[in-house]
Amino acid sequence: MLNSNIVKLFELLQRDKMTLEEITKALNLKERTVYQYINILNNYLEDDNLNKINKVGKTFFIDTMDLEIKNQFLEKYSSLTPEERRDYLCAKILLKDSLDLNIEKDILDISKSTLSTDLKIISNFLKENNLSVLIDYPFMGVNGEEKYIQKILFEKLTKLSFEESNLKKVLNNFLTFVFSNINLNKLFFVYSKLFEKYDIYPSNYIFVVFMVLKGINNHRYSLEVFKEELSTIDFCDYIEFKNEVLEFLESNLHEDFKQIEGEFIALSLYNTLMGFHKQREIEKFEEFLKNVHMEIFKSGDFLSQNIIQFLRTKIMTGLFKVNLNIVENLNFTLPVKKTKLNLLSKISQICEKIYGHLHQEDLLDISGIIYPDYLKYLKSKVEKKKIAIVFKYQSGYFLKRIENTLRTDYKIEDISVVPWVYFLSHKNHNFDIIISDVSIITGRKSILIDIFNIEGSLEALLEKV
């Protein structure tokens, strides 16, 4: 493996011609060490049939490589930084009762003395956190109360998951090791400490997103392996969600793992949001997003766009009082497609055709969120009409709370919040307007506003009118 200084040397000589003096100054190394690193780097380049380091006069340089070839070379041979290496070893020691240090030395491609130095630092760190280290070379383990082990394991796994690291390039066995050496529900419990800090009560999807799906994205887990791991997790009342995820993956699995990750994390964040026990504490969720997930929220990337898009389009009733300034704070640029007009504008068009003009200034036009105030206004225009808000996957208890809040706090009568399965057993329902996040067959002629297929619904409705 190439240590971090050799990688820096490679990148320096790819960018520009440099003298020996300039190299030693840039890397803060002795001349003898630089010459050693040049020889090592040349050997690796030669093994891959790439151009070796040139020397013309007093200057050294490497002929410019194609970016893809350069990245492949670095990915193949880059080693971890000392900090990354120690985080990895620490997490692995905490995950397993006993660790074979000889195997780890070979995996990390480090000397016995380097490993010894790492273990001293790790041992001191664990002792400071009420854990004792047991070493019977070549085996190493940790002794201490479970709560302390969980605390440190949580910190290390979070760091390895959220930070950009060479870990995914070098240690392809890491996620495999995690899955083969720890109970998944136990690992979820470790991660849940993060959410407890913000009084968030997520279901198990968050664990699936940040561990299993990270395995798909970085380590090319097969769909079969993913399904096998997913089946071991207790989803309790969320079996429908698990089935939906599997269906989504089976129909969308392809080379662009980033797309799958974006869709899945977005959907998971939405379901977690809708599953809060403390329904009105959305600001804590926003704090959680900003403080914990800042690394994945990069301006303009596919992942962040999907998350915000889901949060914008799927929070239907506005009971959570979402402060969408989070979007501006994180400098998002969401794509605007001509084929997807604003949801409230579409509803306005439908109601205008059917019930007369609705003033645009009376609508809370916030990119697809239907607030109670808008529902209240809609009811004032269609006073004798009965409205149903339909969700695909939510518990009856949660939906009843939304309905009671709309009726009691916002004085919106004749409105019901129901799961889509309601219509399977109530073919003769009496709803006049149905606002849904899933295509449903109602069994009765109603105005159906399908927020996921609004184009088709709009055309069909206008034809009927």
UniProtKB/TrEMBL annotation:
Domain of life according to the entry: Bacteria
Name of the featured protein: HTH domain-containing protein
Originating species: Cetobacterium ceti
Phylogenetic classification of the source organism: Bacteria, Fusobacteriati, Fusobacteriota, Fusobacteriia, Fusobacteriales
Keywords of the record: Transcription, Transcription regulation
